[in-house]
Design goal:
The chain is an alpha+beta fold. The strands form 2 sheets. Strands 2-3-1-4 form a 4-stranded antiparallel β-sheet. A two-stranded antiparallel ribbon has the order 5-6. A hairpin with a 2-residue loop joins strand 2 and strand 3. Helix 11 runs parallel beside helix 13. The longest helix has 17 residues. The protein starts with a helix and ends in a 9-residue tail after the last helix.
Length: 279
């Protein structure tokens, strides 16, 4: 099944352009390109979409394939390969179920056929399903003098003081746009970040330029320094099965966001004696 699913994004979906504001799950795009347009702006407002993948029903996936020109029977087969539904017994066994029925809407989303999170086909289909959302959000952002990007379920707007004065109105209009397009904002995760504090987008600090949080950099630098001085074995306190690969990934992440800081960490990495036990 997974082999078949991988053919769909590679041979079908990759040929169809998504909206320019979408930065997740796209070649040449990343959390850094998603964050860069917001750097140096006085106000950053971040919204989160509830149950992003499950919010995209099979009917929308079917229409997407039909729009590409596939016959109805083929589009229906492709839709079946790309969607799923959650069995009732799995939902009933979920931890901490709501006792007031407040999760009824979520139950309806998961019980109906929808895009599954983690499937190879879901990211590209989700970007295509969100095309109208991105187009309307980008148009709205331009009208209020703001920048707009989306990384998966994170929608980010940024601008000057004028945006800051309109935050409540902007939030209301973004909620309406999202609702019109079949999505729901998770209002508990809405964040308004002004220049006097730390502004971050998908884990990237954007106050001046793309950066990693200072605390994260200092923590990783300390781990690497201790690996140089005492050997890496004693520093794997979270029992990562491949500590070397884990640290390599963290160093690469810092380097992708901030090359200068990445070089400093890489210099420490190169001094670690991985195969020599230390006391």
């Amino acid at each position: 099944m997974k082999r078949i699913q991988r053919k769909i994004p590679d041979e079908i979906l990759a040929r169809i352009p998504t909206h320019d504001a979408a930065h997740g799950f796209r070649p040449g795009r990343s959390i850094v390109t998603n964050a860069a347009p917001h750097c140096g702006n006085r106000v950053v407002v971040r919204f989160d979409l509830t149950d992003f993948f499950p919010s995209i029903p099979a009917a929308r996936v079917f229409r997407t394939f039909r729009t590409f020109g596939y016959p109805e029977s083929v589009a229906r087969s492709l839709c079946g390969l790309c969607t799923t539904r959650l069995p009732h017994d799995i939902w009933a066994a979920r931890p901490s179920p709501a006792v007031d029925g407040s999760d009824h809407a979520a139950r309806q989303r998961f019980a109906s056929r929808h895009l599954p999170q983690g499937a190879p086909t879901s990211p590209a289909l989700a970007n295509l399903a969100a095309f109208r959302l991105d187009r309307r959000a980008a148009t709205f952002a331009a009208l209020v003098g703001a920048e707009y990007t989306r990384y998966a379920d994170d929608l980010t707007f940024s601008g000057g003081d004028d945006l800051g004065r309109r935050v409540r109105r902007v939030a209301g209009l973004v909620a309406v746009i999202a609702g019109d397009e079949g999505f729901v904002l998770n209002h508990r995760k809405t964040r308004v970040m002004r220049g006097c504090g730390r502004q971050h987008v998908a884990g990237v600090v954007v106050n001046v330029r793309p950066n990693v949080p200072r605390a994260d950099f200092d923590r990783l630098k300390a781990i690497l320094t201790n690996c140089v001085r005492h050997g890496p074995a004693g520093q794997n306190r979270d029992d990562h099965p491949d500590f070397r690969a884990h640290l390599a990934g963290r160093v690469a992440h810092v380097g992708a966001v901030n090359p200068i800081r990445g070089q400093k960490l890489r210099a420490l990495w190169d001094r670690i004696a991985w195969d020599v036990p230390r006391g």
